[in-house]
C-alpha cells in the first residue's frame, strides 16, 4: 500500500496550497481531507449539510493534532466549509463564486462526493440523481474552477469506481434506464455515471494538458455511508449489511486505505502531466486499465458533447 508520509509536506506560513474536496465530511473523503490538512493544505470541504461538515472539521482537527503532536515535518493547514448541494446546479454555481472570491488559484480539486444505487429519481435540474451528483455537477464544478487550476498547473482527481465495468457496452447518457427491478437497473445507472467520470478525465487530459487529470477507484470500502440506502431498508437491510460486511472482510480495505489512491494522485511528485495525464488508478495507488467503454475516446467525446449540450440547454454555458 502507498504510504502518505512519503508525500510532500507544505508549510502554510511559507506557501499557500489550496484543495477542494467534495463530500469531505464522511468516508473516504474524510480521510482525504485529514491527510491534506496534515500536509499543510488550506482545504475547502464542499458539502450539503453545514452541521455534518462542521462536525467533521472538528473531529479532523482533533485527530490531526493527536497524530502530529511530535512530528516536526507537519504544519497543519486550515479547513473551510463550502456549501454545495450537487443535486442542485445553482448551488454549485454559488459555491464556485464563493471560492473565486477567496482564492486566485486552486492546486487540487477532488471530485469525491457520490450517491450509489439509489431508487430512480430526477433532480430539479432534470437529470437522474446518480448521474447529476456523481458526474454532471462535478463536470460543471470542474469547468468553472478550471481557470484556477490552470493558474498553478493544478490537479483534478475524479472518484470513479470498479462498478463502472457494469456498463459493458456504451449507453447514451440521454437514456434514463428507469426500469424494474430497480436493484438491477440502479447499478447500471451508477456504472454509467462512473464511466462518464473516467471519460471526462480522459477528455480533460486531451483538452487541457496543463492540468493533471486522473480518475480513481478507491477500493471496496464497506464502512462508509455509501451503502446506507441498502443497509437502512426495513427488514432486508440487515441482510444487506451482513452481505457488505462479508464482502468487506474478504475483499475490502479500511476507510483510510480507501483514500490512498486519491492522495497519491493528488500529491505524488512521481506523477507528471506529460507521462500520466488521463490515467486511472485503483486501490492503494496502483495504475490500472479501465473498461473498454471508459477507455474508448469516441465514446468519451460523445459523453462530453452530450454533457455540454445538456448544460447549455439549462442555461449553463461552459
Ligand atoms: N465505498 C466504496 O466501496 C467505494 C467503491 C468505489 C468507489 N467509491 C467512490 O468513492 C467516493 C466516496 O465514497 P464513500 O464511500 O466515502 O461514500 P460516503 O461516505 O457516502 O461519502 C459520500 C459523500 O458525498 C456526499 N454527497 C452525497 N450527495 C451529495 C450532494 N447532493 N451534494 C453534496 N454532497 C453529497 C455525502 O454528503 P452527506 O454526508 O451530506 O450525505 C458524503 O460526504 C464516491 O465517489 C464513491 O462512488 C466508493
Automatic annotation (TrEMBL):
This is Uncharacterized protein. It comes from the Eukaryota. Keywords: Membrane, NADP, Oxidoreductase, Transmembrane, Transmembrane helix. It comes from Torulaspora delbrueckii. GO terms for biological process: lipid droplet organization; vacuolar protein processing; vacuole organization. GO terms for cellular component: lipid droplet; mitochondrion; vacuole. Pfam families: adh_short. PANTHER family: RETINOL DEHYDROGENASE, WW DOMAIN-CONTAINING OXIDOREDUCTASE. One of its GO terms (molecular function) is oxidoreductase activity. The chain crosses the membrane at residues 28-47, 233-253. The lineage of its organism: Eukaryota, Fungi, Dikarya, Ascomycota, Saccharomycotina. Belongs to the short-chain dehydrogenases/reductases (SDR) family.
